[in-house]
Amino acid sequence: MANLTDRQRKLLNLLNEMSQNLVTSNNANSVNNDSTLSHNFSLNLPGFSLDGGQNLNLSLGKWGGGGTPGTPTTIREVLLSLVNEQVQVTTPFDTISGTLLAVQDDYIVIIEASGSQVLVRIEKIEFVSNS
Amino acid sequence: MFAAKFTAELANRIGSRVEVATDNNLIEGILSTVTADLALVIDVSSGYGGNVKIYISVDAINFVRFPVAA
Hints:
The structure holds two protein chains of two kinds. Chain A is an alpha+beta fold. Chain A has helices at residues 6-31, 75-80; strands at 86-90, 95-103, 107-111, 117-121, 127-129. In chain A, strands 4-3-2-1-5 form a five-stranded antiparallel β-sheet. The longest helix of chain A has 26 residues, at 6-31. Chain B is mainly β. The longest helix of chain B has 7 residues, at 6-12. Chain B: This is DUF2642 domain-containing protein.
């Protein structure tokens, strides 16, 4: 907590209070069945996720929040790290295997074992593996 | 070496023999015209000298293969 700014500390306190309130209202619900709140509401604190599926980018310093440095965030970044290597690129139609020659703005160039050049649109790539 | 954009690179290769793959189809022919949204391939493989024109939406293209000449 020592490295947190005042705003971050307040935010965490607010979140703590919210979680406690939710737990209390859950308890209250078990007594008072007239409440419109769901009885089955569960709060999963151990795996506590602040962002709830959205990237809030809270920048909690040493706690992370910005992802591990060096970890690619887009398929294009993955491809850029594989230039001149053997790759398998899968699109809805087929999988293309060969040497990744270049990664451009919206497509990549692969040379297949047969010598054929293939231009693959990055938008259509489902997954990439380093074969 | 290669153009930055997919359509620009295709435009540089007009006249080449191509195999164009969409999600469900593979179209073989000669790359004839390329615009920002469309690629025109002349299908010469169907025989009968028909030279069928196939307009392909660039957005639908998975990949374009340029086979080495046999």
